Amino acid sequence: MKITSHFGKQKLWNIFKQNLLTIATFAGVVLGILIGVAIKESEDPDDQWTSRQVMYLKFIGALFLNMLKSVIIPLIIPSLIASIGSLDLSLSGRIGLRAIVYYLSTTVFAVILGIILVVSIRPGVTSNSGNSTDPIDMSKQRNVTTADTLMDLVRNCFPPNVVQALLHQYQTKIMYPDKEPMKLGDPDPADKNTWMVKGNWTNSTNILGLVVFSIATGIAIALSGEEGKPLLRFFQSVSVVMMKVTTWIIHLAPVGVLFLIAGQLAEMDNIGEEFGKLGWYFGTVILGLVIHGLMVLPLLFTLITRTLPFRFLGNMSGAYMTAFGTASSSATLPVTIASLEEKNGVDPRIARFVLPIGATINMDGTALYEAVAAIFIAQMNGMTLSIGQIIAISITATAASIGAAGIPQAGLVTMVMVLDTVGLPSESISIILSLDWLLDRFRTAINVLGDSIGAGIVNHLSSKELEAMNSSQGSDPESIQMTGQKS
Question: What is the pTM of this model?
Answer without folding.
Answer: 0.66
